[in-house]
Amino acid sequence: MASGELVSSFDPRRVRADTPLLRRVINERSITYLDSASSSLPPRAVIEAMGRYYEMRHANVHRGVYQTANEATAVYEGARESVASFINAPGGANEIVFTKNATEAFNLLAKSWGAKNLKAGDVVLVSEMEHHANIVPWFQLRELNGIEVRFIPVNDDYRLDLTNIESLMENVKLVSLTSMSNVLGTINPIKDLAALAHRHGALFAVDAAQSIAHSPTDVTELDVDFFIFSAHKMLGPTGIGVFWTREAILDAMPPFLGGGGMISDVRTSGYTPATGPSKFEAGTPPIGEAAGLGAAVLYLEGLGMTNIVEHERHLTYDALTRLASEFDGRVRVIGPSDTHNRGGVISLDIAGVHPHDVAQVLDQFGVCVRPGHHCAKPLMRRFGLAATARASFGPYSLTRDTDVLIEALHHAVTMFG
Amino acid sequence: MSSLEDLYREVILDHYRSPRNRGELASPPALRVEGFNPLCGDEIVVYLEVRDGVLVDIKLTGHGCSISQSSSSLMSAAVKGKPVSEVRGIIANFKQLMTGVEATLSDEKPAAPVDLRAMGELAALQGVVKFPVRIKCATLAWNTLTQGLDELD
């Protein structure tokens, strides 16, 4: 079996060599990491950037006047610049807010922008394929001020059912959708839907947690209003996420968490919030994590996002083809069966074998997949499933990983008869 | 693969494929108790009928992995028709079997080792202890049964 070589300068084996964790041996087998949709593996460049901060530059940001404090601030703000450039934010770094993760970014959206701009009867339109992070904050806002949360249905072909989208848009003030399903791998037509939302006078938010490391991103070209993702799904560290919106919207949003760093003045009578991203970054921010995120962005840019897309499409096509032919129909892929508008997330339903048992057997082969509902219970219910076993690719994945996956799946199927 | 075979013993796979006491009881008179494992989505419903201090009937529905399903099936076979006091003892023994990892409070006296021979088929579940994340699968039915017995007390 060929191992995913490409003609361009991008070489997944180089990425593999750059990724220390892939040297691990689990149960006497080389690790086969197929859980990048859950969390991707950082290359040495990311780990070293974080190490450099802690070893050489550790200080708080935005306060000290000494050398290392200035350097720490430069590292932190430099990461903001890198992220702004990576997603082509029209207003640059001033539009990038660092959060704890994508979930916190959604809470910022709902609890700051949403609480101010949405009132009883207004509708937030999401879909049945959303992660809980793009559902629960809206339900919480509904409890607070009586908004309606409406769901775009998902078709049997695992894509959004847009047949009645015009009527679904009634009273919608915000459309908030995932750019790529973390269960199905489905890539949604974000640009078209953003244009449709704007025609109806609604704003458009994107949950880009799954797509950010697997497709080129240009928020200016997409013409969306909010864009949310987390570092650890793009080869970066845990503990830092990104919230982007246009500067005019950001400036009009009320503060979210209160404390140090987010103020311009505090008196005994009250406070005046800071301006710009600082207004939403209360307390000491994740500085080391920002250093890691900045390095992850540079690393991904070095690989080339279009190269990653091509590589993962090749892997996904190969895996879908083999899964469809090797198991006499016992292994069902819960997601589109072709690679058109589809990413490298492959959810499996295996007749007679529970996903937790699948994952347990796979672990014996050193294969890391994710069993469970993937924080998408409405989607699971839609397809009558309690859970799936999910395999997902990253830029370091090779067809060799699929070989081991299929070998281990054969073992699971045989074992449970 | 030895530890995997230790987990998925033939008895477990047998109870998974052919679960015992599957079904529902009219409630009332039977007590209906639900158990959930929110992390993995496993669900179980236990129906208990206790008369004169004896667990005269037990039925189970729900869905889950082979460990949770076989454990509930094995449990039902072990406790059906037994006096409630004896059922409590079986539960205590089973919980102790699972304490390979589930830590007891430090001032609790270490209990005597479980007599595996006395546990019969339930002993097949001891391999679960080596897989800490699966212990919750094995104990789901037992915790649900305990909850039901507590309600009846």
Number of domains of chain A: 2
Order of H and E elements of chain B: HHEEEHHHH
Give the overall average pLDDT of chain B. Answer: 87
CATH topology of chain B: Sufe protein. Chain: A
Largest interface here, residues on each chain?
A-B, 18 and 22 residues
Number of strands of chain A: 17
Strand order of the largest sheet of chain B: 1-2-3
Going by helix content, strand content and strand pairing, the class of chain A is alpha/beta
Structural write-up:
Chain A is α/β, with parallel strands linked by helices and 417 residues long. Chain A has two domains: 12-43 and 305-416, Aspartate Aminotransferase, domain 1, CATH 3.90.1150; 47-302, Aspartate Aminotransferase, domain 2 (3-Layer(aba) Sandwich), CATH 3.40.640.10. Helix content of chain A is 39%, strand content 17%. Chain A has 14 helices and 17 strands. Chain A has helices at 12-18, 44-57, 67-86, 102-117, 136-145, 165-168, 190-199, 219-222, 247-252, 287-303, 305-326, 355-364, 377-382, 399-416, and strands spanning 25-26, 29-30, 32-33, 96-99, 123-127, 148-152, 172-178, 203-207, 226-230, 241-245, 263-267, 270-273, 331-333, 345-350, 367-368, 370-372, 388-392. In chain A, the strands form five sheets. A seven-stranded mixed sheet of chain A has the order 4-10-9-8-7-5-6, sandwiched between helices. Chain A has a four-stranded antiparallel sheet with strand order 13-14-17-16, with helices on one face. Chain A starts with 11 loop residues before the first helix and ends with a helix. Residues 1-7 of chain A have low confidence and may be disordered. In chain B, helix 2 packs across helix 3, helix 3 (66-79) packs parallel to helix 6 (135-152) and helix 4 packs antiparallel against helix 6. The relative contact order of chain B is 0.20. Mean pLDDT of chain B is 87; it is low at 101-105. In chain B, a hairpin with a 4-residue loop joins strand 1 and strand 2. The termini of chain B are far apart. Helix content of chain B is 42%, strand content 18%. Chain B has one domain (2-152): Sufe protein. Chain: A. Classes of the chains: A alpha/beta (417), B alpha+beta (153). Chains A and B meet through helix 12 of A and helix 1, helix 2 and helix 3 of B.
